[in-house]
Amino acid sequence: MIGIKNIIRNERLKQSLRTYRYAFSTAPPPQQNSTTTHFGYEDINVEQKEGRVREVFENVAESYDLMNDLMSGGLHRVWKDYLVKVSRIASMSQIVRSFDDKKELKVLDVAGGTGDIAFRFVDACGCRERSKSSGVDPISITVCDINDEMLRVGERRARQRYGNELLDNTRALSFVNGNAQDLHNFEDNSFDLYTIAFGLRNVTDVDRALREAHRVLKPGGRYTCLEFSQVPNEYLRKIYDTYSFNVIPSVGDIVAKDRASYQYLVESIRKFSNQSELEHKMSKAGLQHVKHTNLSGGIVALHEGYKD
Known about the structure:
Layout: H1 4-23, E1 36-39, E2 42-45, H2 46-60, H3 64-72, H4 76-87, H5 89-97, E3 105-110, H6 116-125, H7 127-130, E4 139-145, H8 148-162, H9 165-168, E5 173-177, E6 191-197, H10 206-216, E7 217-228, H11 234-246, H12 248-256, H13 259-271, H14 275-284, E8 288-295, E9 300-306
Parallel strand pairs: 3-4, 3-6, 4-5, 6-7
Antiparallel strand pairs: 1-2, 7-9, 8-9
Helix pairs in contact: 1-11, 3-12, 12-13
């Protein structure tokens, strides 16, 4: 049994000391410039972030579900189910299938390496049943991730779950290496739905990633982003911060033997845009009818927009 009370007590003391030293330091806080970015609370050169983030996810690829459970207390499953429901992909797939394969529905799931979102789409669209028939499925779900290790885990899980037909014959599901900031392997106006879940905050240049999302969407296509966000309620925020900083890294150390990766993931949430800031970035990238829905009090927000 993990001594959670002892973990909280020890980590709270460390966090308080860090806060005290920062508050009473005479040195000004570090300033970012065009050549630096944040990696959690650390300022690093822009060119370093991609490699540092890749290393984090290489470390957690095999325990990705465990990581999400620790980060969210298991709620990530509910949040992801909500994304799929809101996407209305089930009803869209029924419409597409009613046209006898003459129509198509193309989905791009970015930073979705291990397939957590993609598998939900496969199930909602009935792609497994369709794979028992011959020919290419008019519904295609492409998982795009910059990390080969995450993709390897995702494809292995897909073959274990669905067999080989879904990937090799009907090609309803595919795994592709790609960078959210530079989707050069996808043409303009290619996808009906673009999703990214818990990945946007790890991108070095968020504005560029949003412009790329807009570019690859078809006119009328939909953008959805599920991401940890900022909790507006002060009382809930204090509880969440206590859990995040005092429990998650320590439990990650005990369970996954990787404290540093979990510490970064916690810090990256606090450095990411809040709900209104991300909406502004989405609009600036060209997305229309932008909105967000807070989930679990704002711990997570689902952001939506369309390409006109």
